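Retry 2 of 3 after timeout on previous attempt. Resubmitting structure tokens to design endpoint.
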């Protein structure tokens, strides 16, 4: 972590898990540099500008000087974000937007304080599993989750149960190779087919939370029956622990991730069963557009800021509002200021994002007047444009909103 200064790859896409982990570690990544290997030799000096997606190979004196100056500027900008830490995340017209952290490594937890987040909106539990050569047992997992909760203190942590498979293969889980891994045997599907594995994880979560709050979220739920089956496993672990150790978590909340479009037509039945819903836009959009999130050729093809996406999100907000179910969006789009601007305009009041995004998104929120944003964003969903990104950017510039 100390030595890697940047990652440049010939493939890749911004919502791939490699990019997500690099973002969490604040390591710049540049992908889709297709001619990388023909232009770069061992030992070459490289300058990587992740912000502007530029790589300088064997840069001259002048470029190096200019680069140093812009690094200084970036540093200053970061310092100004750090100063926002203790300021509330409210719009100019006084509406509070809860900002939460996406985490997956213990080291991410330090950003809860330093970034001024309200809690962890998505704890990706699979990351410690990916870093091991064997499946961690109940004790080892209990230790990890307890440490996470210790570090979070009073702030809530939403633990997502294992989401492996897809682009997150576990070396020791011998699965057949799926032709379409993202749509294959992954996440809750593995958990329900291998209930011992999911039960061990749930047991560890319940144990680590005894006497504390426990928030659990199931990924890739495609039908209500899957949620019910997962919930039953959790309930049996709760009962088992209460009987054996006599201590239960206080304040248990159980939620689902909305990542599979089929769930959109089951919300009326699903929501009464939930304590909260979280939209995993990375997966939801790849399935919505039938566009692989890890395929570099597809990464610019469809825009998250497009009318169908805004329309879908507005409808989920409306349904959750009717059922009084708290809603968060925890995909990568929550951490990009222009996207976050659209999201708050649509009605989101809770967003969860990678640590480096907290400052820029809070700065956007504090410079926006929500009533104006809402009025501007609402009709955008009815347009036929490929994207409304340029319009939103212009709106932000005209209204002095920091993006
Ligand atoms: C998502 O799909 O948006 C999400 C948050 O989960 P992950 O990126 O880990 O698949
Ligand atoms: Mg996902």
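Retry 2 succeeded. Sequence:
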């Amino acid at each position: 972590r100390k030595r890697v200064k940047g990652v440049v790859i010939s493939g890749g896409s911004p919502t791939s898990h490699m990019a997500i982990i690099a973002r969490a570690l604040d390591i710049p990544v540049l992908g889709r540099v297709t001619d990388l290997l023909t232009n770069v030799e061992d030992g070459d000096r490289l300058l990587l500008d992740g912000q502007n997606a530029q790589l300088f190979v064997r840069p001259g004196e002048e470029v190096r000087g200019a680069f140093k100056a812009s690094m200084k500027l970036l540093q200053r900008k970061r310092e100004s974000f750090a100063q926002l830490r203790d300021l509330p995340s409210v719009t100019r017209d006084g509406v509070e937007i809860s900002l939460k952290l996406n985490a997956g490594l213990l080291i991410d937890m330090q950003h809860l304080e330093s970034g001024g987040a309200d809690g962890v909106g998505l704890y990706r539990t699979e990351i410690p599993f990916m870093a091991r050569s064997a499946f961690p047992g109940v004790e080892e997992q209990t230790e990890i989750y307890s440490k996470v909760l210790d570090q979070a203190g009073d702030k809530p942590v939403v633990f997502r149960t294992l989401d492996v498979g897809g682009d997150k293969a576990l070396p020791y889980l011998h699965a057949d190779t799926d032709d379409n891994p993202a749509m294959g045997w992954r996440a809750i599907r593995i958990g329900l087919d291998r209930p011992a594995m999911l039960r061990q994880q749930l047991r560890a979560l319940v144990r680590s939370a005894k006497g504390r709050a426990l928030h659990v979220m199931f990924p890739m739920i495609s039908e209500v029956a899957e949620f019910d089956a997962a919930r039953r496993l959790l309930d049996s672990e709760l009962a088992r622990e209460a009987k054996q150790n006599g201590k239960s978590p206080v304040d248990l909340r159980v939620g689902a991730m909305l990542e599979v479009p089929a769930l959109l037509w089951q919300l009326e039945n699903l929501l009464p069963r939930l304590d909260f819903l979280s939209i995993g836009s990375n997966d939801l959009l790849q399935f919505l557009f039938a566009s692989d999130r890890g395929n570099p050729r597809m990464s610019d093809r469809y825009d998250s800021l497009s009318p169908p996406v805004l329309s879908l999100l507005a409808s989920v907000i409306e349904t959750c509002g009717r059922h009084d179910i708290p809603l968060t969006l925890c995909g990568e789009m929550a951490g990009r200021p222009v996207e976050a601007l659209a999201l708050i305009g649509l009605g989101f009041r809770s967003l969860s994002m990678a640590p480096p995004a907290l400052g820029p998104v809070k700065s956007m929120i504090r410079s926006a007047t929500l009533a104006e944003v809402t009025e501007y964003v609402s009709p955008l969903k009815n347009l036929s444009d490929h994207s409304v990104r340029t319009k939103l950017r212009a709106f932000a510039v005209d209204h002095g909103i920091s993006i």
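Attempt log closed. The two ends are 29 Å apart (CA to CA).
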